[in-house]
Every structure is written in structure tokens, then in C-alpha cells.
Task: structure prediction
Amino acid sequence: MEGEYWNAEMELLSREEIEALQLRRLRDTLERCERSPFYREWFAAAGFDPSRLRSMSDLRRLPCMDKTTLRGDDPRRFLTVPLDEVVRVHSSSGTTGQATVIFHTAADIEAWAQLVARCMYMTGVRRRDVFQNMMGYGLFTGGLGFHYAAERIGAMVIPAGSGNSKRQIQLMRDFHTTVVHIIPSYALYLLEVFAELGLDPRADTDLRIAFIGAEPHSEGLRKRVEEGYGVRAYNSYGLSEMCGPGVAFECPAQQGMHVWEDSFYLEVLDPETLEPVEAGEEGELVFTSLNREAMPLLRYRTRDLAFVYPGECACGRAHRRISRIKGRSDDMFIVKGVNIFPMQVEKVLLGVLGVGSNYQIVLDTVRSMDEMRVLVEVAGELWRGEVKELNELKRRITDELRQEILVTPRVELVEPGSLPAGEGKAVRVLDRREHAKGVGDG
Ligand code: DLL
Result:
């Protein structure tokens, strides 16, 4: 018989039980870390004695790690098992610089599959479902992470991979796909392809659930996906360094993403002072893995900014919930002295009727000054309509952006489908200024 929970034992732990389990698992993890040359040195340099750990907060005596810590050493030196126990390697989707390498044992892979299965099951995926996985298969964790989980549930998996939009639609129709896993920006783009083919996903497919994640996106984008496809769309968060997807996931209440605290210890820290912030206050997510074998990571700084929802979730699970990710601290850009996150721009754009499915922010230096342009694709009907209406749309977007970001960007309306739409994570900001930093490597 099908139950309501994939793993009731873990999903229904009380706060006290979660905290007791975390302490036990942290002790085991630290013990395991002492087998790794990297951690032995890391502990010695910090004067940290794992055997003296009394509470989770004692972990704060260790410094945080980040991508540079991983890049600064041979990845094999992090291993707590002999290399021949490693069965898989994944890496982060760095767009610049060196990718970070993450090793997994067979038990790591199984634990990960179980975690993602828990997420999918929680939102209602069952054996009878047909699951089309439209994420890249390979070193990126989005593809394989969901693939094995859906198989554990017993759903039928279509390992479609990313891209090839017309074929994706064909597969959905041929196999009566009910559940998709898709990059959010690509989900919007694909709606246009449906329209070009004269198809309406609500009427012409059997879709009922979409998992969207791997990149920041706004509530407005979720609504468009839900309305456009006629599905419930669930936000899914994760990072290769912790396993991949499956770190935090929305339940049917859709009020924040539950962090699976039996597997990850979450700290939310002020990114400047590295002091913990209160629930409800925004900070940087810092994770410690609690049951990873090959390559545990301690106090890993994600650069992702979010807050923890105070209070309990309607679903009854006590695992804390994080908000939608506002962005990465290294995604923020500064124009004329004002700090701006791409997500603020998206929030405005997707709330305006007549805005199409893609946008891009372009930053230039013009006569030694910052210039911010926002290129916005217009919805098809409007693009073919009257100039007066287009001017009105442009004025509205400019006004609303000015209120949100406090600078006035130059808004340029462009033809639907004219901005680059990749298959992978969207590149929202093109910073061509003279002193531009490189593209963030999420
Ligand atoms: O993107 C893992 C993943 C795959 C998550 C599929 C969800 C679905 P990385 O390539 O290592 O791993 O990138 C991790 O992507 O630190 C965030 O900056 C961003 N990110 C991931 N999920 C979300 C989300 C995968 N739901 C980095 N909202 C993270 C916002 C997200 N940003």
C-alpha cells in the first residue's frame, strides 16, 4: 500500500529528535573527517579537537570553507575513504574558473537517491507517474540526481536531458508525461515553443507537477509556469557540494523549502561578520553534511542568500524551511552605488502584463558612467499590436523598476524569442563595464 510519506521516520522527527540526531551524526562525521589529510590539517590549524564537541554550536570553533578551499587543494585529500571506494564524481556548474570536484561512495549515491525520492514523493509523485527529466545528464547533478530517485519510487523515467524543445514536447505527448523536472527559465521559453506549434500544454498534455530549481527565480515565474502548464510547480534547491538537488524542497504547502536536517546542518550567517542571524532575517546559507561518506564538508559557505521561516509548517514536518533564494552574494551588482540583485528585476518584470518570457540585464560603461539597460521580450500579441501600447508598457516597466531598485535603467522592448535562451542555467546579467567582475560561477 502506498503511504503518505516516503520516509516517515525521518520526515516526522520532532525538533528535539532532529537536534539529537544531528549531534550524533555530526560526531560520526567529524570522526570520519580525521581520516582525511585535508581535515587533519584543517583541525590542527584551528586548534579544533573533534572529541571535545559537546553541542552543535561548538562547530563554530571551526572556520567556514568555500569554493576556494576546495579549489585550493587536491580533491583526493578531502577523501575519508580509499579512492577505490569512490564510485562517482560530480562537479559544480562553474561558468568560470575551475569546477569543484565532489566524490561519492555507493552509499552516498544511495542516500542521495533516497533524499530526492523523499522530495518527489512528498509532492505526490507515485509509481503510476511518467517522469520526464529535462535536466542535463552528466557532471551536473540535476539529471542523475532526479533520475535514480524517480526509479526508486517506481515511476517511468524518460531521461530526455536538456534542450531539443520540439522533441521534448513530442515525448511529453507520446508518453503522456505527468511530471517534469526543468530549469525555470527554460520552462518559460518552452511555453513559447508550445504556442508556436499551436499547442496548449493545459489541454494537449497530461502534466500535473513540475520541479523547478537549480537557479534563482521569482514567485512570478512560478505562477507563470503553474498557469501556463496547468501544474503545481515546486521549488527545489541544492548544490553539488552537498550532493546536488535534494538539500531543500517545497512541500504541498508551498511556503518555503524544507531543509532535510537529518542530512544537513544549516547555519544562516551574516555574510560580513559570519555571526548567526535570527529566523526571518536574511543571511548566507552555510551547510555541514551529516551523513556523507566520501567527502563530508563542514561549514560550507554557499553564497546563497535566504532566510528561515519562523514557525511551523502546515504539513507537519519540523524540518526548518528556507525562503526562495534571493540570489548569490556574488550575483549582486552595483550601479551608481546602488546594490542590485537580478531577482529584484525579475520580480518586477514578471508582475507586469505584456512582458514575455525572457529578459537580460546589460551593464556598460558610457562616458565613464555606469549604464544599465534592461532588455525585455514582449508577449507575442502585444508585439504585433500598437506602438502606443508598447510605449505604455515601457513606461510602466521603467517606473516599477525605479521604485524597486532605486535607479532608472534604460528599458528596451525586444521581439519575442530574440534574447539568448540556453538550455542550462540562464545568464541574466551581462556586465561589460570596464571594471566588471567575471560572471559568477554558481
Ligand atoms: O544546481 C543542483 C540542483 C540541480 C538543484 C537541480 C536543483 C535542481 P550546482 O550546479 O552546484 O547544483 O549549483 C548550485 O545553484 O548554490 C544556488 O546558487 C543555485 N541554486 C540551486 N537551486 C536553486 C534554487 C545544482 N531552487 C547553486 N533557487 C546553488 C535558487 C538555486 N538558486
Notes: Residues 1-328 form a domain with the Rossmann fold fold (CATH 3.40.50.12780).
